Amino acid sequence: MNPLSCLESKLVGVLDTQALREYQTWWETWGCALSDTVDRAGTPLIRMHNRWGERVDELIMPEGYSTLVQESYRHGSVSRVIEQNDLLNSFALGYITSFYDPGLYCPHTVSLSTAVPLHKYGSPELRERFLTPMLLKDGDAWQGATWMTEAGGGSDIGSYVRTVAVSCSDHYLLTGEKYFCSNVGAELAVVAARPMGAPEGIRGLALFLVPRYRGDGSLNYFMRRMKEKIATRSVPTGEVELKESEGYLLGSAEMGVYLILEVLNCSRVANSIGSAALAHSAISEAERFAAKRIAFGKPLISQPLMRAQFERWKQTQDELFALAWSSVELLQNVWQQKPPYSDQYHLFRLVTHLAKYWTAEKAVQAAKWSMEVHGGQGVLSEFGIERLLREAMILAIWEGGSHRQMLDALEVLQKRRTHELLLDWMAPNSSQAELQDWRERIEQYLLQPLEDQEAQIETLMPPLAQWVGKTLQGRYTIRTESIA
C-alpha cells in the first residue's frame, strides 16, 4: 500500500487528496531518483571563500537538491499551517515525504518549527520581513532551522548552552557555537541563547530568530564544518559559529524555556510521523520482495513463519500510525496556545513523548527486519534497503533520545497527573476494566521513590505506549490491506 492510500484509508474526509496525489506522483516520477542521488553523494562541501577572498560559506549540494527540498513547500507544508491553520495536511505531506526519504522531512520539519514561533511570538515587523518569504510556494521559499545543541550535549541544554545574547537597540548580538545544526545554510534559524545577566540553568535561556544575513547583506552566521553522518544526507548538518550575530528575541526572555519546548515538541510530532512512515516503507519493501522471492518451492510470503511475522508487523504499523497521528490531532488543537497552557496542552505533551519514543524505536526494528527478509540483498547499497536502517537510527536520536522521551513523559505524569487526562481521552476506545487497570498501575508506580521511578521507567513506558497505540487504532477507519 502506498503512503497516500494508507492516509486515505484511515483519514476519510480530512485530506486535500488532490494536492497529496500530485505530491506522491511527483515522488514516483522525479523525487525518488533525486533522493537516491543526494544520498549517494554523501556529505556536502562548503565553499568558504569566493575567488576574491571574501567569506561566503556557500553550501555545495548535489544537482537537483533544491528541486527535491522545495517541492513540499510548493504544496504547502509550512504555508498551510500559518495561512489555513491546517496541520493535518502539512503532516500528511510529511508522511509521504518520509515514506520515500525520512531525512528530507527534517528540513520541512525545522522550517515549520521556525515559522510557528515566529508567527506566534514575532512582532508584525518581524513577521512581514521574515515569515512572508517562508510561505512562498514558487520554489524559492525561505527555509528555517532549529539550533539548540552545543558541544557539551543536547538534552541538558540548561547546563550546556553557552551562547550569550547582548541587547543592542532593537535586536541582540549573539556569540557562541552550535554543534549539531540541521539544515545549515537555512535563511533563518531559531536559536537558544542566554541573555547577558540571565540566571544559569534552563530558566535563563531565551529563543532568538537569527537570519542568514545581516541587515547590510553580510554573513550573519558562519559554517565551521559539515558533519559526516550515516544517513539523513538529504538534510545538510554542520557546526555554526555565531560572532555578534544579529538576533531578534521571540516572546519574552522570561518565557524562553516554554518557547524552546514548543519548538522541540512540534518537531517531535513530525519525528513520530517520519518514524511511522519509515516503518510503513520498510514493511512494504519487505512485502514486495517476499511476494516474488521463491524459497523451498513457494514464495517467501507464503511460508507460515514469514506470514505470521508480516501479520504482526502490519498490526504494529497500524499502532504506530494511530499513535503518531493522534499527536498530530492534539497538536492541531493546541498549537496556538501560549503559556499558561491548558490541560489539553499537557495531554498533548504526554502523547507526543510516548509517540516520539515508541514510533522511533519500532521504526529501527522494522527496518532491521526488512533487511532480514531481503537476506543478502538487504545489506547491498544498490537496492536501498540498508538505507532504511541508516535513516531509522537517526530518528531515535533527533529531538531527544528514547530515554529523554520516557523521562519527560514521567515528569508530566508526576507534575500534572496527565494519566487521568489520558485515560479520560481514551475512554471511548477502551473498556472500563482496561482503564481501571492502567489507572491503578500508574498510581502505584507514582508512589515509589523518585529514584526508583526513574530507574524502573522501562517497565512502564513501553507497555503504556504500545497500549495507547493499539487502543487508538479504533479511531481510524480501516486496517492496512491484508497480506497477499
Question: Characteristics of this structure?
Answer:
484 residues; alpha+beta; Butyryl-CoA Dehydrogenase, subunit A, domain 2; Butyryl-CoA Dehydrogenase, subunit A, domain 3; 3 domains; five-stranded mixed beta barrel; two-stranded antiparallel sheet
Text of the CATH class of the largest domain:
Mainly Alpha
Q: And the CATH topology of the largest domain? A: Butyryl-CoA Dehydrogenase, subunit A, domain 3
Task: State the helicity in percent bands.
Answer: 40-55%
CA-atom Rg in angstroms: 22 Å
Largest sheet: 5 strands, mixed, barrel
Spans of 5+ residues with little confidence (pLDDT < 50)?
479-484
* Amino-to-carboxy terminus distance: 11 Å
Question: Which range does the strand content fall in?
Answer: 5-15%
Structural class: alpha+beta
Count of extended strands: 11
> By CATH's scheme, which homologous superfamily of the largest domain applies?
Butyryl-CoA Dehydrogenase, subunit A, domain 3
In total, the number of domains comes to 3
Number of helices in the DSSP assignment: 17
- CATH architecture classification of the largest domain: Up-down Bundle
The succession of helices and strands, N to C, reads HHEEHHHHHEHEEEEEEHEEHHHHHHHH
Q: How would you sum up the global shape?
A: globular
Placed side by side, the strands forming the largest sheet appear as 4-5-9-7-6
